[in-house]
């Protein structure tokens, strides 16, 4: 078992939706969270070639800069008909203004009338301590792409992703229901077993 995570933890993200969601997942464990944005930490360049590499890079940078344990998430949407794109570039497809309506339209346009609508959200979570210790886990949730997008809950690509076995998008279901089945929840369960249980 890895080192137990206690006290203050930096969420290595400037994405408020992601910070809020991770904070809600951590709430039962008595961990005090602060975002990298609130601490004024710079966002490192994501040069990894996978979700895991990018999560580890961000966690390590935040842990060293803040001298506190840091949790980083690298997640995105992988669409089978697009060979796994947008993948690690999911946020970049939304452009500098983080326009996910445009990003969803871009995915839809690139898919065209392809019959395979299957996709998955992938989430890598990495915790780094300032002394270099690190724990990384990965979670997924399978589903399909729908068009047009539906719902105003969640963030990012949530309004056009329908998880397997459901009829509502992540943008339509309540936060608690999403937390129970999402890629982040899947990864988080593994993280809890590794360093919060």
UniProtKB/TrEMBL annotation:
One Pfam entry name: Ham1p_like
InterPro entries: dITP/XTP_pyrophosphatase (IPR020922), ITPase-like_fam (IPR029001), RdgB/HAM1 (IPR002637)
Coiled coil: none
Keywords: Hydrolase, Magnesium, Metal-binding, Nucleotide metabolism, Nucleotide-binding
Entry's EC annotation: 3.6.1.66
Cellular component, GO annotation: cytosol
Residues noted as binding Mg(2+) in the record, renumbered to the chain: 45, 74
Highest taxon listed in the record's lineage: Bacteria
Binding site for substrate: 13-18, 75, 155-158, 178, 183-184
Active-site positions on this chain: 74
Cofactor(s) named in the record: Mg(2+)
Cofactor stoichiometry and binding remark: Binds 1 Mg(2+) ion per subunit.
Enzyme class, spelled out: hydrolase
Swiss-Prot/TrEMBL catalytic activity: dITP + H2O = dIMP + diphosphate + H(+); XTP + H2O = XMP + diphosphate + H(+); ITP + H2O = IMP + diphosphate + H(+)
Role summary: Pyrophosphatase that catalyzes the hydrolysis of nucleoside triphosphates to their monophosphate derivatives, with a high preference for the non-canonical purine nucleotides XTP (xanthosine triphosphate), dITP (deoxyinosine triphosphate) and ITP. Seems to function as a house-cleaning enzyme that removes non-canonical purine nucleotides from the nucleotide pool, thus preventing their incorporation into DNA/RNA and avoiding chromosomal lesions.
Complex and partners: Homodimer.
Protein family membership: Belongs to the HAM1 NTPase family.
Protein name, entry field: dITP/XTP pyrophosphatase
Species of the source: Magnetospirillum moscoviense
Lineage of the organism: Bacteria, Pseudomonadati, Pseudomonadota, Alphaproteobacteria, Rhodospirillales
